[in-house]
Amino acid sequence: MIDSRFLVAIILATLATPAVVRADGFSGVVQRQTDDRDQDLIEALITHRRFVEAKEICSSEFLRFDAKSDEAAKWAIRWSNVLVKEIESGGKFDNQSIEKCREPITTLVDRLGSLKTLDDHRRSAFLGAQTDRIRASIARQVVVAASVSPSTERRVEDASSIISQATQGFVDLAKVVDGNRASMDTKAITPEEKAFSADLKRLHNELRIEIVSLALLQTDVFPPGSRDRTAAASRAQREADTAFKELPIDSPARLEIERLRTTAILRTGDLQLAERSLAELATKLPRPIPHRVMALRIDLDLAQGNRSKAAERLGAFYGTQPDDAPLSVEMDLARLAYLIDTRNKSVGQWLTSISARHGAYARRRAEAISLGNLRAKGTDDAIDPAIIAAQGADWLRRGDSARAGALLAAAAKAERDDDLAINYAIKSAAAFVKAKQPAQAAATLTAVTIAHSAAKQAANAHLQAAVVLSQIQQDGAAKDVENALLQTQKTWPESDAAAKARQWVITLLARQDRLQEAAQLATSFLNDASTSQEIAATIDAWMKLVVDSNESVQAKTLSEFQLAFESLKQFPAIARGYAFAEAFLLDVNQLSDTQSIPKATNIHETFAADLAGFRRNQTVTDTLKSPPERRRDIAQWRLMRDGKLNPKHRSTIAQLISSWDAGWEQQIPLLVWAGKREQAETLAKETAAAADQPAPIWKLLANTLANSQNRTDQLQGVQVWDQLAAGLPKSSVPWHEAKLGAIELLIKLGEQADAQRRAKYVLLTNSPADATLRQRYESAVKK
How far apart are CA 319 and CA 325, in angstroms? Predict the structure, then answer.
């Protein structure tokens, strides 16, 4: 391994070689910045992104010193800072990265031996400041990520919260540092202690800079030109004013605070005050003017509309080969702002150059500026959306799908060409889905397709938003899918996508047991252009609603069906479908005459026509003996209802349906209707024995026997009611229902005395709390 001190000498020689100073006053080589040679070296390596060498130096020097020494702490801090800048340059700041940045400090703790805590280290405040700087770096990463994503209240709150936490860390540490300084300054101290007190003072100044920097960072959370951004800038200005009172005049820290204050003023929009503030700052600075201040000067020129001055300053710095200019993130961002402001076609190329010169974090800052311009200005004055889209495609190739999605979404929302906007939106959605952010994908597709509804692929892309939403597993997602489908239908009613949306939303409602909504919505979609499949699906929805509804509301549902189709029957295709549906849904006395039924063209229509004939005259055809699966349930329901309404047809109905492989709900009544009461009782007994809830089975048998035309069946029904009551909790509502079933059946049979005796006994011993049930008992007593 190369001795770190030798390596230091080599690098210092390389970086400190005198450079030719150009006429513009800017040098092309990184020069010494402070009186701390080691710190200048590491900063220079960071600027040139030579992180491997920087880490090698820091780790080697760190291990050379005793863990309790000031030097060990200083190198641990430098090492940690290199790791922060390296990770920022790479563009991925996650929990694992955060822990890596803390490793030098945790390693120092491990080397402390008996101390085992940073609080006992003389440099504990400085080490704590580095920990807070890691948190501040996280805040910067979060803000720059938020700035390229669609603005939401939650995103703003999250970014603001992280900034607030980082700020509070610096504020709390500043109080500790002030306390330490006050304690040292009251004592007669040695030269070494005086030097340490001076270090604490510098740390205090650095903390004030960090606090103001974070206040200024808060402005980046909000869109350029917004009231929130202006308010945040005003707060940053006030924070800088406060810091002024604590810092010596003309100190480096105060000059930096003054630069931050001027930046804040510029962001409030007060250009005159910003000009005065910058002019005052310039008088206090050495020559050549620092890059950060020159960049601020150019930003102010652009804000004032003075493009020629901005161009002159940029030309002096960059010359004819911008990529070879001195490394300065601030100047590179200022040049980007100028290129955007002048709508220069090299914006995309310069974004790529920024990435190559400074890494991922700088590139993201640059993209944030581009997107801010795109969102703040009208399309005619903004950066070309194709440039942003190209950047998004580049991030997708690099594997950062979330960032690619955000950039492509921004391009889509800014693009004026309908088809191109939809194209960007589709690519954005694909990137968001890949990044496991389906909500963002759907939001982008929805917003862009509605804004560019005339595009060829708009309807299909909007339908795709519903597909993406259907993949989200959280409360409210199903409703979002429903709304998206309805919007597709409403916006592009004649499209193939709308047809698919209509079918999907009806299915969705049915799966949620919202059958009435499904039927009514499906009917509302019908018109003279509806296909036979859409008409059939609508009729299916009504049939399912009828079959699954409570018997007490079926009559009302059938009336709603008739009313819903009344105005639609003017359209031949719908009238035809309705005519065949009548065979299943209308009572026999409501059926149209035979002449009005169209000629059947398929098995379903043939079965419907034959069913209508059977219901009129009990004629059984071969088609009726084997119903289509799609129509079996509704046909069984229809005929069972006919049997209940017209007892004289029960035997014929029972004979027909018994061949349909019906369930016990139909078989028990059918056996009774066919005169096979004992078989019905046997089936009920076997079915009840295997059921978790046998009571409904016995109740069906009891009701069927009670409604029979045969007195023997009815008498047996009284026994079934009694048996059912015996198996239920006494005094429960189901128990009273069974008791009343037997009593009311006895009254129907003319056995009033027995019915009265039973009713009186229940009222005396187990009178129901429910008024309706009690009234039925009292009515039986009076019979």
Answer: 8
Residue 744 is encoded by which pair of tokens? 């009311």
- List, for residues 287-309, the tens digit of each pLDDT value: 888 999 999 999 999 999 999 99
Torsion of CA 617, 620, 623, 624, to 10 degrees: 80
Buried/exposed code over 144-167 (b: 16+ C-beta within 10 A; e: otherwise) = bbbbbbbeeeebeeebbebbeebb
Q: Tens of pLDDT along 745-783? A: 999 999 999 999 999 999 999 999 999 999 999 999 987
Please give the radius of gyration of the chain, using alpha carbons only, rounded to the nearest integer. 41
- Confirm whether pTM is higher than 0.70: no
**Cβ contacts of residue 698 below 8 Å, gap of 6+?**
684, 688, 720, 723, 724, 727
How many Å separate Cα 312 from the centre of its chain?
47
pLDDT tens sequence across 32-51: 345 678 888 888 899 888 99
- Whether 319 shows a pLDDT value over 50: the answer reads yes
- Our CA angle for 563, 566, 569, nearest 5°, is 150
Hey, how many other C-beta atoms are within 10 angstroms of the C-beta on 747?
16
Residues with Cβ within 8 Å of residue 404, at least 6 apart in sequence: 392, 393, 394, 395, 396, 428, 431, 435
CB neighbours of residue 351 within 10 Å: 23
Phi, psi dihedral angles at 27 (to 5 degrees):
-90, 155
Judged against a pLDDT cut of 70, whether residue 8 lies above it is answered with: no
Residue 332 to residue 334: CA distance in whole angstroms: 5
What mean pLDDT do residues 615-635 have?
88
Per-position b or e across 40-75, b if 16+ CB within 10 A of its CB: bbbbbbbbbbbbebbbbbbbbbbeebebbebebbbb
27 strand-pairing partners: 21
Instruction: Please measure the distance between the N-terminal and C-terminal CA atoms of the chain and give it in whole angstroms.
Output: 112
